[in-house]
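Subject: for your reference before the review

Hello V.,

The reviewers asked for a structural picture of the protein, and I figured it would be easier to keep everything in one thread rather than splitting it across files. Below is the amino acid sequence we used in the manuscript, unchanged from the supplementary table.
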Amino acid sequence: MPMDPSRLLVLQAVHRTGGVLSASRVLHLTPSGVSQHLAKLEREAGLELVDRTRRGGGRPVTLTAAGRALAEQTAQLTAAMASVEREADRYRGQRGGVVRIGSFASALALLVAPAVVSLSLTEPAIDPRVVEVTGGGLDRLVGNQLDLLVTDRPPAEITARHRGAVVTELMHDPLRIVLPAEAAGSSDEEILRGPWILADDDSRRTLERVAIGRGVTLDARHVGYDAGTVLALVAAGLGAAISPQLTLSNHPRARFAVYSGALDPGGRTISVVHGPQPAPAVERFVEELRRQASDAEQPVAASAEPGDAVRPARSAPR
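And here is what came back from the structure prediction:
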């Protein structure tokens, strides 16, 4: 019996996400719907694809050797389907069509939204569909739920997890130390001592290393993850915090100060990711994102914006 390609895509999603529940979220199906697709695919293939001897107890779904092999081969099916769509675009003589873009909030506001506005004037045949992504973006991209993903995940991590992903670095986004307005004149040691509003992430660990090197113990008194919440706590005088420059560009600064001294909490790389052989409309959107990122990296006045000009963005061929 021929295997249904759509069910192969369900199998691939289970393999990549590690479970029926997580695959159901990516595919926008119910968990029972995913299980039904797997059972039907097993009947079509005449093979056991799911190892049911290891189910239960909260353990992730494990595929059999046959299931893993079919799931990995399905990547070729996904690429072939995308290639057919691109060929149809070429015969239609246009580089329009739907482009689905996922992004985290600050990049949506300062990179993706301006790109959409610009392309609405220069490329009206492109139909952008924007999705705010807070997690699982790479799985949605690989599962053909997105055409482009703007992310701050390290490029090496992306390509290690998803072979075939094409990563274009858009910009370097330096991390800045933000202070309550009344602490703007504090010494480096006073700033390091705290109190701090920190998340448990790489920037905190970088700051801890700087503090150790200066013989200072951090007072990490508060924990915050949402950018708006953290900046509100800083403005209220609860402590200093670390924020990406791109995030600061989207928040008024009347109630807090941006440190511009020698302490360096590091930075992050913002990239756009797509699959191999992107459609013409996807390539055009990447070009526009690069232009918007270049504009966002222009030097700014020290009295109005944090820090110095950052290094130019570069493309990372994969």
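For the response letter, the relevant points are probably these. DSSP finds twelve helices and nine strands in the chain. The mean pLDDT is 80.

Happy to draft the paragraph if you're swamped.

O.
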